[in-house]
Amino acid sequence: MALFPSEEWLDLYVERINQSKEYREAAATWEGDVAYVFEAEPDKNVPDELWAWLDLWHGECRQGKLVDASEGEKAKFIIRAPYSRWKEVINKELDPVKGMMQGKLKLKGDLPTIVRYVKAANELVNLAQTVPTEFADEQV
Amino acid sequence: MAATVEYADEEPNGLAAIIGGLIEANLQQHPEREALLKPAVVGITAPDVGVSITLQIAPGRVGIANGLQGKPHLLVEANSETLIELSSVPLRFGLPDNMTKEGRAVTGSLLKGRIKVKGMTRHTARLARLNKLLSVN
């Protein structure tokens, strides 16, 4: 069980990505890094904004780590939402495509590329849902 | 002069941001698509998320407003995931290519009512231009 958001959670997530045959196939030609921004919610035990950076290349995650905003902003694609929205996504309470349409998740990057790889993007989200997670606001 | 994509609302909804971003990137990457910008008003609605937009297309400009406004030539209605998938469907003469699996799937969805396009028969040329404008292929 890993605390979300944390470096430990991210390590488990990267492991899941690299073990996924479905992701490897869907993202076989994908080239580009992605940053997830978990916006701060101090009342939910997330006092600071956190940036998770994933180096995704041809169906593989070569590296994943928490980075500074200045580094994360250089990513080819950035998905941003408050911590509790991410929690909804990981708990399968919010479909990411619907969330983006509703403006609950904000996406920055080349839209045609995202649309071409929507299956890979969905698989990334599915994999986040498989990580045994303890949420920051539910810590005992 | 490059075509512009302008948002009518201070805070465009998510669908407006996605469709606007798609058109903007397509026009940058395929400048020849600017020729597709002929007068048309298009409504797009995703009932599963309760979000709609109106596109005002004119030479050199695409205006995007939140919600459905006025009387559009075309009104496209589909769930959010299908709307995204529509942009990656291979086209033939601007319409889904039934020679491909993806094209046949869209035609099937149209026949089954999962995708509704009001004005499709009257404004076929406008629909073909819209499809090409949004296509990521």
Explain this structure to me?
The complex is a heterodimer of chains A (140) and B (137). Chain A has a five-stranded mixed β-sheet. In chain A, strands 1-7 form a two-stranded parallel sheet. By secondary structure, chain A is an alpha/beta fold. Chain A has helices at 7-19, 21-26, 69-72, 83-90, 96-101, 111-116, 118-128, and strands at residues 2-4, 31-39, 50-57, 60-67, 77-82, 106-108, 133-135. With 137 residues, chain B is α/β, with parallel strands linked by helices. In chain B, 34% of the residues lie in helices and 26% in strands. Chain B contains four helices and eight strands; from the N terminus they run βαββββαββαβα. Chain B has helices at 14-29, 80-86, 101-112, 124-134, and strands at 4-7, 40-46, 51-58, 61-66, 74-77, 91-92, 95-96, 116-118. In chain B, a hairpin with a 4-residue loop joins strand 2 and strand 3. Chain B is globular and about 40 Å long. The mean pLDDT of chain B is 94.
In DSSP terms (H or I, runs of 4 or more residues), the helix count of chain A works out at 7
* Gap from first CA to last CA of chain B: 24 Å
**Continuous helix count of chain B:** 4
Q: Work out the strand percent of chain A.
A: 25-35%
Distance between the termini of chain A: 13 Å
Number of strands of chain A: 7
Neighbour order of strands in the largest sheet of chain B:
1-4-3-2-5-8
How do the SSEs of chain B run, as a string of H and E? EHEEEEHEEHEH
Question: Overall 3D geometry of chain A?
Answer: globular
Summarize model confidence as the mean pLDDT of chain A: 95
Q: Please state the overall shape of chain B, judged from the principal axes of the Cα atoms.
A: globular
Q: Which structural category do the helix and sheet elements of chain B fall into?
A: alpha/beta
Low-confidence stretches of chain B: none
